[in-house]
Amino acid sequence: MRRRQFVKLAGAAAAVWSLPVRAQRNVVYRVGHLAIAAPTDIPPPPPANWEAFVQGLRDAGYSEGQNVSFEHRSAHDKPELFPKLAAELARLNVNAIFARGTWALSAAKNATGTIPIVGIDLEIDPVESGLVSSIARPGGNVTGLFLDLSELSGKHLQLLKEILPSTSVVGVIGSANVNASQFRELDRVAQSLGLRTLPINFTAATSLESVFAGAKYRAADALIVLSNPLNLANRVRIAELAASANLPTIYLYRPHVDAGGLVSYGPDLPDMFRRCGSYVARILGGTKPADLPIERPTKFELIVNLRTARALGITIPEIILARADEVIE
C-alpha cells in the first residue's frame, strides 16, 4: 500500500514539475519585422533574404505557426513612416524587433529602450552612430550585423580601376543622411588611388533622371551606387539610366546586377539574414542583446554581367572574370 501511495505521489509530483516545461513549449513568441517592404508586399515566392532569416530561426527550433509569429510593418518605400511603425511595434510589446536598414533601425531604437532589437545595416558604423557602445559588447538593446565600410569602399574603387584603368572621376550615388560615412570613406580611399569622387545626393524627392544628368554634366567616368533601401528599390531604373548614359556602374548588392547592372561586390545577403535569424533565436532563448557582439559579414560575392559589359562596349579583364563568383551571360 505504501509503495502504491508513493508511486501515486511521485507521479503527481512529476506531473506538477512538467507543467512549466509544457507551458514553455506552448509559448508563441512575437517578432516585429520593420522594413522598407515586407515579404507580404511581394508576390510569391518569398524573397530570398526573408527566407534566409526564417531559416535562421527554424534552425534554432523556432517555426512560424508553431512557436513564433511575425508582426510585419512595411514603410512601402516611404522612410518617413518608420517612426510611426516602430512605435506600433513597441506598443505591441513584441519579444524582439528585426529592423532592416538605417531608417528602420534608428526608428526602432528611438521607439524602445527595452525591447531587444536585431538590426542589419550596410550603411552606418554602429558605434559612430551611437547605436551601440562597442562592437564586442553592444551594451544596450541593439545588436546585429553591420558592414566594414572602409574595406568595401576600397574594393569598389580598385575594381573600377581594374575594369577601366583610365578612370579618374567616379560619381557616387547615395543619400547624404544615410550614406554620410560611405561618402567620406570613398573620398579618402579615392585620393590614395589618384581618383576624384563626385558625391551625388539621391533622395525620394529627387528624380533619378536629374541624378544621371548631373553625373554626365560633371564628367563622371563611372559610378558607384551606395547601399540604401531607396537605391535598392529603384535598381531597375538605375540600371536602365546607367546604360543610357553609358556609365559603367558598380554596386554592393547582387540584385542590382540581376536587374541589369554591370558589377556588384558585396556580402552574401542571405547568409547575413540567416545569421540575424539565429541572433533573434538566441534572444528568444534568453540571451541579452547587450551580450551578443556585433557581427561582420564573412562571405562576399563578385558578380559580373557580361551582357551589360558588351552593351557598354567594355571588355572585362580575364583576371576579374576568373575571380567572379558568377558571370551572367
Throw out a few tags for this protein.
single chain, 329 residues, alpha/beta, Rossmann fold, 2 domains, seven-stranded mixed beta sheet, five-stranded parallel beta sheet, 13 helices, 44% helix, elongated, disordered N terminus
Explain what you see.
It is a single chain. Helix 3 packs across helix 4 and helix 5 packs across helix 6. It contains 13 helices and 12 strands. Strand 9, helix 10 and strand 10 form a beta-alpha-beta unit. With 329 residues, the protein is an alpha/beta fold. Strands 7-6-8-9-10-11-12 form a 7-stranded mixed beta sheet, with helices on both faces. A 5-stranded parallel beta sheet has the order 2-1-3-4-5, with helices on both faces. The N terminus is likely disordered. It folds into 2 domains: 144 residues, Rossmann fold (3-Layer(aba) Sandwich), CATH 3.40.50.2300; 149 residues, Response regulator (Rossmann fold). It is elongated.
